[in-house]
Amino acid sequence: MILSKSTIKNITAADLKLPSPGELDLPEKVLQFGTGVLLRGLPDHLIALANSRSEFNGRIVVVKSTANGRTDAFEEQDALYTLCVRGVEDGKKIAYNQVIPAISRVLSAASHWDAILECAANPEMEIIISNTTEVGISMVKDNMHASPPESFPGKLLAFLYHRYKIFNGAADKGMVVIPTELIPGNADKLLAIVLEQAHTHGLEAAFIDWLETANHFCNSLVDRIVPGAFNREQRLAIEASLGYEDELMIMSESYALWAIQTDSDLVKSKLSFANSNPEVVLTDDIEKFGELKIRLLNGSHSFACGLAVLAGFATVKDAMENGSFNNYISSLMLDEIVPAIESSSISSSTAAAFAAKVLDRYRNPFIEHKWISICMNYSSKMALRNIPLLFSYLDKKAAVPSLMSLGMAAHIAFMRNLEYRDGKFYGKTGEVEYEVNDSNAGWYQQAWVENGADKIVQAVLRNEELWQADLTRIAGLEREVNYWLSELQNKGSQACLAAVTSKTTAD
Description:
α10 crosses α16 and α12 (323-341) packs antiparallel against α13. The chain has two domains: 8-283, NAD(P)-binding Rossmann-like Domain (Rossmann fold); 287-506, N-(1-d-carboxylethyl)-l-norvaline Dehydrogenase, domain 2, CATH 1.10.1040. It is of the alpha/beta class. It is 47% helix and 15% strand. The longest helix has 24 residues, at 287-310.
């Protein structure tokens, strides 16, 4: 039995949340560009939850824009799919399955462009969301009159212009546009490109005024790990327990955040799905959410990834099952990163609460997050995410952060004795080889050869091309990183982690 509207009444699985009949026939209120797992695992899920509580009462028309524009599975299943939520909250495992009925239909831009434009005539459709990858929000030469336009901004311009014409430029018929692409100022950038394309096409001034005044482009930040489809063996096992087949089944962690920037009461009234979903935050400034994420989640990842690989941990889950590593990452966040990011907009309690959620996410036993994947572009991630933390901690505490220094030492050790073959760099810990996927790997290889263990820390820290600063000028940093590098080389990563545990326990 395949999941669909006609078969859903026959599903009797006890461990499954099913939609009510009314949720399957709600009006279309949202146009979504993208069918990816992030959209289906976050915004679409949150809209479905709101619908189940009679808070939003609207469904989503999805536009599939990729070259492979087939929508067969969505059509066969009436756009229904199962979301399997797996995670940890407040130290407790969370696991449930839910059939998501939020999507009304999926239209291929390549073959259903006229039907997509027809959605512009629907007065109830007031929201556009997107995730077309970071490349999707970029300026390309396009023809908005093509069927369809090539780019996402071109498609959006064509849709909005069609709506403008249908409703004769009515001020109350603008759209709320919420891109979720993972770039800073995503809505600001999207609006700038759409405006540029409108001018390029010579569209009338009245439309451009309507575009800027009647529509609301809202920056947003999404945060949820959505690994997507299960492997075949896992999917078959879940399908057997649920009693139906679902080609569109996906998995996500339980944590979710969708921060949307707006100070408009009108926009807030249209985004009523936020009312009963604490995961949706409507705020006049999403910057603090980005800061929390990049420093506590991404930053701690980058400080710890090399250390974890050198200690022999394959996945985040494996590492968090080790008491010493668990203590290191917890102390790193709470004792060093939280004080570093405390500000007028981020209180210590807010940062600590976010850190606790990050630790729950790290402990998620259902997600296989490989440390070596986190080490990709290691040096640039350290520069972007962690060097600002280092300076901030120094500024506020007037001391060198020991656990950050251990993370820097592990980064340098990770790059030691690299071997280049077949166009790739490889490192080694014990008898285990790992690939170093980093644009600066060649520099590190040469630096280790030229400087050796005695001077490598100085060479790395003073490289202004890496860090945009000479870090040897920070009093005490070179000494602390040298200490930890020596410990890593002479005693090993596990011993260093144990030493951190002993010190923090004593403190």
